[in-house]
Amino acid sequence: MDLDLNELEVVCRDLYVRALKILPPDIKAGFSDLQARETSATGRAILGTMVENVAVAERTQNILCQDTGIPIYNLVIGRNVAFDGAGLKAAIRRGCERATKEHSLRSSVVHPITRQNEQTSCGIRVPIIHVDFDARDETVSVEMIPKGSGSENGSFLQMLLPSDGINAVKRFVIDRVIELGGRVCPPTIVGVGIGGTSDLCMHLAKIAATRPLRSACADEDGARIEAELSRAVNELGIGPQGLGGRSTSFAVHVEIAATHITQNPVAVNIQCHSARRARATLTPGGISFD
């Protein structure tokens, strides 16, 4: 299949808007799970308000949060797909620009030194584009994540030593959640990267933070640690919006990579309660939106 770049441009435009306006079903289910377990009257009230805000936004076709985020596009390209790499990047950027201009979205992207805003949600190396490959035939999946600043500011990296042990990894995660409190708009998804290099570890944490709820780390040991941390985080009493309760986090997700024998990096990246993302799949039979 030849990837139609004009089609990709439109998909990337539409995914940005869908991500800003429609909360994924797994996050809605996550709210229901938290409401069923919350024992604090204040916590239950705040969760109820959050759920109502989502319903109002979707009913009136407004965005879920005023922060349109840093646009991230994750592509997974299957076998027997022909495409122009430079053209692909340009098409994604055009789609991002069109979403911002055609739907009058606030552009949250500025130059890091001059703070100049192009009003397109684009800038140097933005949108952020990740491309991976898999074995599916003639298939391209595109995921769009508008990563808000409030949660992205909850990002940390520590280069631990192997002698520190796995308890140091857990302690680092718990301490960062305590430090952040209500500043990252809990209930959150706490993404944890373990291993790799410093840059890969941070990337793993972002993957973990934006992974669907009720999914598990593919590595058995990683899955065990994320289950332990998920329970521990919700015993901290931070609660929704930091005002107390057991609903501090939907889940803690862990992703791992092999690392060097003399190091053990750990990273944390937070996703707020408005855990926005949208996905589309392109095949010779057409386009489907998840």
UniProtKB/TrEMBL annotation:
Residue stretches in coiled coil: none
> Which Pfam family would be a valid example here?
Fumerase
> Which keywords does this chain's UniProt record carry?
4Fe-4S, Iron, Iron-sulfur, Lyase, Metal-binding
Q: Any signal peptide, and if so, which residues?
A: none
Q: What InterPro entries does the entry give? A: Class-I_Fumarase/Tartrate_DH (IPR051208), Fe-S_hydro-lyase_TtdA-typ_cat (IPR004646)
**What domain of life does the native source organism fall in?**
Bacteria
Q: Is 4Fe-4S tagged as a keyword?
A: yes
Residues in domain Fe-S hydro-lyase tartrate dehydratase alpha-type catalytic? 12-280
Q: Please report which protein family the annotation says this sequence is part of.
A: Belongs to the class-I fumarase family.
Q: What is this protein called?
A: L(+)-tartrate dehydratase subunit alpha
* Origin species: Methylobacterium trifolii
